[in-house]
Amino acid sequence: MKKTTEKPSLRISLAQINCAVGDLAGNAARILEYAEWAGRQEADVVVFPELSLPGYPPEDLVMRRHFQDDTRRALTELAKKMPAGPPALVGFTETAGTDLHNAAAVLFGGKIRAVYRKQRLPNYGVFDEKRYFAPGKELIFLKIRGVCAGITLCEDVWADDGPAPALAKQGAQVILNLSASPYHAGKQSLRRRTIGEVVKKCGRPLVYCNMVGGQDELVFDGGSMAMDAHGRIVADAPQFEECLLTADIPVPPATRFPKNIVPLSPAPAGTKIPIEPPPSAAPLSELDEIYSALVLGTRDYVKKNGFKKAVLGLSGGIDSSLVACVAVDALGKENVIGVTMPSRFNSPETRSDAEILSRNLGIGFHSVPIETVTEEFLKVLRPVFGDRPRDLAEENLQARVRGTLLMALSNKFGWMVLTTGNKSEVSVGYSTLYGDTAGGFAVIKDIPKTLVYRLARRRNEKAGRQLIPQSVFDRPPTAELRPNQTDQDSLPPYELLDNIIRLYVEEDKGLGEIVKSGVGSEIAAKVLRLVDASEYKRRQAPPGVKITPKAFGRDRRMPITNRYRPGQPN
Amino acid sequence: MKKTTEKPSLRISLAQINCAVGDLAGNAARILEYAEWAGRQEADVVVFPELSLPGYPPEDLVMRRHFQDDTRRALTELAKKMPAGPPALVGFTETAGTDLHNAAAVLFGGKIRAVYRKQRLPNYGVFDEKRYFAPGKELIFLKIRGVCAGITLCEDVWADDGPAPALAKQGAQVILNLSASPYHAGKQSLRRRTIGEVVKKCGRPLVYCNMVGGQDELVFDGGSMAMDAHGRIVADAPQFEECLLTADIPVPPATRFPKNIVPLSPAPAGTKIPIEPPPSAAPLSELDEIYSALVLGTRDYVKKNGFKKAVLGLSGGIDSSLVACVAVDALGKENVIGVTMPSRFNSPETRSDAEILSRNLGIGFHSVPIETVTEEFLKVLRPVFGDRPRDLAEENLQARVRGTLLMALSNKFGWMVLTTGNKSEVSVGYSTLYGDTAGGFAVIKDIPKTLVYRLARRRNEKAGRQLIPQSVFDRPPTAELRPNQTDQDSLPPYELLDNIIRLYVEEDKGLGEIVKSGVGSEIAAKVLRLVDASEYKRRQAPPGVKITPKAFGRDRRMPITNRYRPGQPN
To answer: Looking at the structure, do residues B256 and B313 belong to the same domain, yes or no?
Structure first.
């Protein structure tokens, strides 16, 4: 046995756990389990994610008095049950008079020894914390094995004027951070930069424990880390999976101990068992990271809502092919059912590609033709329709027959319907409400079409074979709702469309700026108009994983009734 | 001609106008029109609602830089175009560096003479103003015809620590308030009490200009008023309609003029034309107020979204009968189409009641039977369903066939589909997603079933005849999706159900408190469970008018994935 280093250091466990919103008992059990594990690793302190006890984000649930009371009871119970190991920092909501705080409890020796209240409350993007919480004002210091540690919660280290420098100045030798930081593409490198800047500002090591798991539209991707006082990563956890990351974190020598420091564990009697420096998580490529987010988001939405199996319509196109792959990776092939629902407008090629894909993936497969049902609909509608020419009504009808069939299967067998619309379609409303948008979870609603192709190609590459048949990639995209239809009859080429959508939806650019960037003004104006006019469809669409920095949904709250026309005389 | 009173007074016009979100040009035109009207009435000042230029609530639209720029341009234009009449207070969003303010511009003499920034930002209930706006810090005083007036914006007079007392202390003889205060049942009397308390605190008269009109789920009900320094209503405007309310408001004598006061109109040369004290708006009864809110909310949603006509399914039940009446009152009978879609489970009585109602209302009427389409669905599903017994899948299928038929009519003729589900059903999920929930606007989604009956009775009473046939009131409520079905097969009696829903949804009571109030614990627990488990359906439902103090939607933001079970071991 090797002795631990002579320089001052702290053995810290970061418990990157998957919490479920509202599951006080389940989350408490998970916390206990990881606390015991940290104890076996002889950790000096174990840090859990922000709001780990109630789950994050609990939304208006936290405003209910009975939920607040139950949370408090659950915390008190948990404190009593905690093993006689290291102090644990657990996120919870604290009721203080008429105020509510996003707080971290320090559990040790069967008691709640201290409570830190989050000081910086995010109220932008997907966050509404000022709706719920009052900001805390007090800094909390813990004395752990002779080391002074300061507590922060998530946004506290993201805000420019957060409390970390003050903690350092008043004696903290290490900054602990409990987080629930949702994923978007590229977030992990942004986190490293942000934490790096805080460390630079404070001259103190910072340990960052993030939540992992899906909650409605959000995926928490983990990626917890410990950074030393020089900004070097000492240890880091993988993204998208639970783990206990334990590492010996070197800390600078003590300067002073604040008067109000909370004394916890004393210096240890003997030496500690050595722990292996955990292998650094290899950073995921952009595509693998996004794909993993889709898988985790889908798995957790389906399972945390009590479903086991999922069904989806397979059109033989790239979108449903990708969603089928994600579903299989999320739920297992035995839990995925593909259904092809051909009409006269579906080519033999797309029908056979749907079947080949199902065979390649090894999933259940059904074919339910929609021709006769559609005809019967048109028959009963004829007295009202009269001899009006075929138009969008007949196209949407086919999509709604398919949606109704999938929902019938869902109701009969208890399968969740996964929808297959991508962000390009969702943006411009190229979809049928109650048709292809009908379902429980919209797996790729935040994935633009061009990215759908890249993810699908990457999935084949990882499989080492044509899981998705090559012809699916080669065929021009089509909704197959009328003869010889292709998406580009109605929409600009996807490269161009996705570019406009990125500028307008994600970067909030106006028509003028978009045109200046080189997009034709007529096409840009048309796309912007379509995006605005489709808000009502998006409001009635199922949730799906947030992937981009600005997803539709809680990230982008636009009025439905909206007469503003960007770039037009207003 | 009678001279105006010798005591100091100010002639104030409150322009209670209907603004549309994003319609900068349209709202500006409306403001001009009312400013001219106020000029003809020789008003000393005209007050418009909060955010009258961009409309309220503009949500994330205000965060777009190009919208901010367009708003500023529109305001500058408007200032130039304003008639040479009284100063006008117009609500707009002000960009100041990286901050955005909810602000009131004082337009006079072709210029923006002053800007007041809202100090208290509501961030609860349906409000998210801290997401958008930074609070203002400065008090603004206007010198109008020798009288010192102080400006406030909406929440400024609702918050306990608002700026009104400081305005009074520093010299304001009258408090002007620009508001966009959404309706809920009983709000108007709450407003009078609130304003009365502010007046009492300040000892100053307060004039309150509220917006009118529907915006997505919100209805602004107007009810603008002027209260004198003794808390008496000097003038008040009707609810639910546009109006210009002009009145001579007596003000206390000047005490001091703050140094930074903005000098505006000088004392008038001669006497003013007399104005009649406007007749006080007779307060609406509870039922008439609610009904008016439904009518205005429906009219504005349909029309502001570019629709003229609406279609709805008529089941012969009370819900669709009430919605048909609202639709006729909102859009005119020539713009409403009722469709009955009978199956084998519909009794001859309900079918004939639907037809009688249509005749009574004088609306369009079609009958489209669903039997053959449903059968065809079951035929193509048989290979997958096998010989499983009939269950919810077959019931929901019928509702979805109906939803699909209505949407086909919507697509073919450009009619908006109105859905007919009430709050009791919406609460417990007694509805079929993509079936009876399919449509553009959910007129009575916030009206509990017991209130549906009361409103329907009152509508008949006002008509002076059985617009809705008596048998519709007498028949036990039924979804008619299987033989001899009634709602009470699945649900507790509506009196009981609505009581539990009020306690749980509107008052946030827990299971313990609900049981203590006298509800059986088994039934209460079942209802609570149904409410929680139906969140996914509500997320995909169309918007509808907020009527109760806490409606589903932006008022109550619950997670879909939610493992909390009130009153159970958690």
So the answer is: no
A500 within some domain? no
The answer on A449 and A369 residing in a single domain is yes
Of B377, B509, B557, the CB nearest to A408: B377
Is residue B547 in some structural domain? no
Q: What six digits make up the tokens of A68?
A: 């607040």
Are B74 and B28 a contacting pair, CB within 8 Å? yes
- Split into its structural domains, chain B has a count of 2
Q: Which of B416, B408, B441 is nearest to B309 (CA)?
A: B416
Strands B45-47 and B262-263 turn out to be: unpaired
User: How would residue A490 be classed by pLDDT, with cut points 50, 70 and 90?
Assistant: confident
Residues A558, A560, A563, A566, CA torsion sign = positive
- Residue A74, in any domain of the structure: yes
Would you call B50 a catalytic residue per the annotation?
yes
Supply B168's token pair.
């009074």
Position A346 scores a pLDDT of: 87
Instruction: Give one DSSP letter per residue of A498-543, joined into a string.
Output: HHHHIIIIIS---HHHHHHTT--HHHHHHHHHHHHHTHHHHHTSPP
| Under 8 Å between Cβ of B13 and B174 | no
- Cβ–Cβ gap B563/A26 under 8 Å: yes
- Here the CATH number for the domain that contains residue B206 is 3.60.110.10
- Same-domain status, A224 and A311: no
Closest CA to B219 of B178, B184, B179, B186: B184
Pair (B410, B497) in one structural domain: yes
pLDDT at A564 over 90: yes
Which letter does DSSP use for residue B306 in this model?
A: T
pTM over 0.90: yes
- For chain A, the first-to-last Cα distance in angstroms comes to 76
CB-CB neighbours of A465 under 10 Å: 9
Question: Which residues of A fall within a CB distance of 8 Å from B99?
Answer: none
Q: Is A128 touching B (CB cutoff 8 A)?
A: yes
In tens, the pLDDT along B200-236 reads: 999 999 999 999 999 999 999 999 999 999 999 999 9
- Is B118 in the active site? yes
Tokens of B88: 């006008």
Closest Cα in chain B to A213: B561
Asked whether the beta carbons of residue B372 and residue A384 sit closer than 8 angstroms, the reply is: no
**Which chain A residues have a beta carbon less than 8 Å from that of B370?**
380
Cα B271–chain centre separation = 41
Same domain, B259 and B325: no
Interface of A with B in 359-418 (CB under 8 A): 366, 368-370, 372-373, 376-377, 379-381, 383-385, 388, 391-393, 396-397, 400-401, 403-405, 407-409, 411-412
The reply to whether A333 and A454 lie within a common domain is yes
CA-based nearest residue in chain B for residue A513:
B66
Rounded to whole angstroms, the Cα distance separating A351 from A354 reads 5
Which CATH number belongs to the domain containing residue B361 in this structure?
3.40.50.620
Q: What distance, in Å, lies between the first and last C-alpha atoms of chain B?
A: 76
Which one of A212, A237, A266 terminates a domain?
Answer: A266
A218-232, A255-269, B101-115, B138-152: the lowest-pLDDT one: A255-269
Domain containing B343 equals 287-539
Nearest residue to A382 via CA among A394, A372, A396, A371: A394
Q: How many residues can be counted in chain B?
A: 570
Residue B499's contacts (CB-CB under 8 Å, 6 or more residues apart) are B519
Active-site annotation holds for B412: no
Q: Are residues A108 and A72 part of one domain?
A: yes
Q: Is residue B61 part of a domain?
A: yes
Residue B263 shares a structural domain with residue B295: no
DSSP state of A157: G
Last residue of one domain, picked from the residues A266, A296, A316: A266
CA A183, CA A214: separation in Å to the nearest integer? 10
Q: What is the spatial distance between Cα A335 and Cα B194, in angstroms, rounded to a whole number?
A: 57
* Residue carrying structure tokens 């009590």: A306
